[in-house]
Amino acid sequence: MGNQTSTSGRSAVNQEVRLNSLGMAGARLSELLDSLDTNQDANLAKKRAFVRWPFRTESLHLSLKQPGGTNSAVKVAGRNLSSGGMSVLHRSFLHLGTQCVVKLPQTWGGTRDVDGVVARCRHVAGVVHEIGIRFSHQIEVRDFIESKEQSYLFTRESVTPEAVTGAIMHVDDSALDRTIVQRFLKDTSVSLTGVNTVADALNRATPQLDLIITDFQLSDGTAPELISGLRQKGVLSPVLLLTADTSKSIAEQARTAGVIAILSKPLAKEELVRVVAEFLITSEEDADAGSAPGGDEILREQFLTELKAAAGKLEEALTADNAARCKMICLQLKGTAAGFGFQRVADQAARVLQLVDQTQNVADNIKPVQELIALCNRVRG
Asked: Most CB within 10 Å of its CB: which of 3, 41, 102, 246?
């Protein structure tokens, strides 16, 4: 009897220390994931709406609401992640349609509960099953995956150029490079303004610009100098750096200045269109249309007006580095946006609120604040 009790105790301990239901970690788990990546069907990627990025995590907490109404919790291993869902590995079958909540670790610390539903379950080998989870609302992948200095995390697998619309300024002292960008974007619905100096850019830039693309070194200044001048003028549009200099020093200077993404020259047409679409309204994406509680359209229109106003207030808070003002606006958006169907706005507001609360300033959080402003401005009336 004593031996049986001891064995049972050890079994219970083993279950507790397991990182996931497979009991796999380290090299064994990496080998399994490598095999899955090698043998994946390339044709499936073309059919997906969102890009799947590697998200190799040894242990994720997954809460399940079983068809019978009972709740359970398991630990699974992460494989990949996209704006619309993720793939995890589990030791048993899960019914399609099972509601679930996964705790995703955020890049700045802590976790976020993301609601979803089991959309796919396939047997891999032995006890290993790959579970596809479709999220109830799209997430911002960059909240959970750190991108490398010279890489950009696309969210869409592909983009129809004609669906991309917005106002862009391109700053480059090379006439050839300006022509290349113009040619690459000619099939879109983008309004493109090309300039060749920092002075001309500052003279012509307005807050209505959806995106600014610039080289780092210009004839009369640098990208950081351009960004500083834009911010002083009240132009808080996201800035994308397009440069042939991929050194770490340039990347660090650009990030410090507030560049939201860095792309290296030479650039392929598809890559430019995809990254531009990340910041502009497209008819394909979830440029939130939203809905009012109870279907009250008057209430909805009032909220849309306030959402646009919130974008302007956030710009003012960013310019003045007013943390208290920024937190108040984010708190309001966090509390109301989801109720009108703008879940991504609510999530981003919560993210900014947490970051500004940690740093007690807005200046250290330019990028996430700009992303929130862009989301507010992208709503449909």
From this structure: 102
Average pLDDT over residues 182-198: 95
Distance CA 215, CA 349 (A): 30
Question: Residue 367 pLDDT > 70, yes or no?
Answer: yes
Beta strands at 71-81 and 53-65: parallel, antiparallel or unpaired: antiparallel
Q: How many helices (H) and strands (E) does the chain have?
A: 12, 14
Mean pLDDT of 80-85: 90
Concatenating the DSSP letter of every residue in 118-168 gives EEEEEEEETTEEEEEEEESS---GGGTSPPPTT-----BS---GGGEEEEE
The set of long-range contacts for 21-27, using a CB threshold of 8 Å and a minimum separation of 24, is: 21/74, 21/75, 21/76, 21/90, 21/91, 21/92, 22/77, 22/89, 22/90, 22/91, 22/127, 22/128, 23/91, 24/77, 24/89, 25/58, 26/58
User: Which residue carries 């909805």 as its tokens?
Assistant: 300
Q: Which long-range contacts (CB under 8 A, 24 or more apart) does 249-258 make?
A: 250/216, 251/149, 251/150, 252/149, 253/216, 253/222, 253/223, 253/224, 254/216, 254/223, 254/224, 255/149, 256/224, 257/223, 257/224, 257/227, 257/228, 258/227, 258/231, 258/366, 258/367, 258/370
Q: How many residues does the chain have?
A: 381
Give CA separation, 239 vs 166, 236, 320, 354, in Å. Answer: 14, 9, 19, 23
**C-alpha distances in angstroms, 36 versus 40, 42, 62, 63?**
6, 12, 21, 24
Q: Which residue matches tokens 């619905």?
A: 189
